[in-house]
């Protein structure tokens, strides 16, 4: 008796495993891995940059095609709501100007949305302050205003009607000064003397040897200077040729010292002679030019010169002391 043997299906072969592809790391990914900022933060920064560019482009297009200002403002306000809004102000260059004043000027805006901040308006307002010679205002997206200040340099103190004010070399008023806190700067006195500061500095440069000894200068009659030296004497200079007269006085003082010798006042308004007066004496003396004569003589006729040297000298001294 035969037996039938049934054969089943052939056994299945195991499916070979697929090789997993090796994940390649790009150079950009390697660099990002080294940056101490999370990937999420970087993505947000890129998003803000794209939004900022898109917002600025939209505002520019709206302006170009003539979209009404209200619509352009609305677009700019939307950019502000998206994060492009003034939140910080960085100020550089300040030495004497009040920092909080600069902050207040920069924030004085109808809107703090970055596209609506008027940079030229901020600069114009800053230039109204005496200390600020120039200012540069710019944006740093998304939320910072940059203000770079160039300050003026104090050059002298101006006294007028008993008020002391610090001024720069151009005569621009900087700030009030207290008498007990006077800086070590030249003192100029009289109405309009601040506007003569550039000419006054040029005058002193004509006699550099005397410049350190000049402690005050009074602008007389809106036409000429009286100089006061550290030794107490006053020198009346002419209206015309003041620089030449000062150079001549410096030469005479160098040949035979005049300052610190007890004289009260020197008068050079007459270009032909130097007239001097001592305290308590009504009579003036004409001092000879050492280049022409070696001695000093009395000049009774000069006791009352045509321009009233004695009376004007007393007035000038009173102004300086006041």
TrEMBL record:
It is a single-pass type II membrane protein. Coiled coil: none annotated. Pfam families: FtsQ_DivIB_C (PF03799), POTRA_1 (PF08478). One of its GO terms (biological process) is FtsZ-dependent cytokinesis. The keyword Heme does not apply. Residues 297-322 have a biased composition (Low complexity). GO terms for cellular component: cell division site; plasma membrane. Residues 1-21, 279-322 are annotated as: Disordered. It is found in: Cell inner membrane; Membrane. PROSITE patterns: POTRA. It comes from the Bacteria. Residues 84-152 form the POTRA domain. Keywords: Cell cycle, Cell division, Cell inner membrane, Cell membrane, Membrane, Transmembrane, Transmembrane helix. Essential cell division protein. Belongs to the FtsQ/DivIB family. FtsQ subfamily. This is Cell division protein FtsQ. It comes from Sphingomonas zeae.
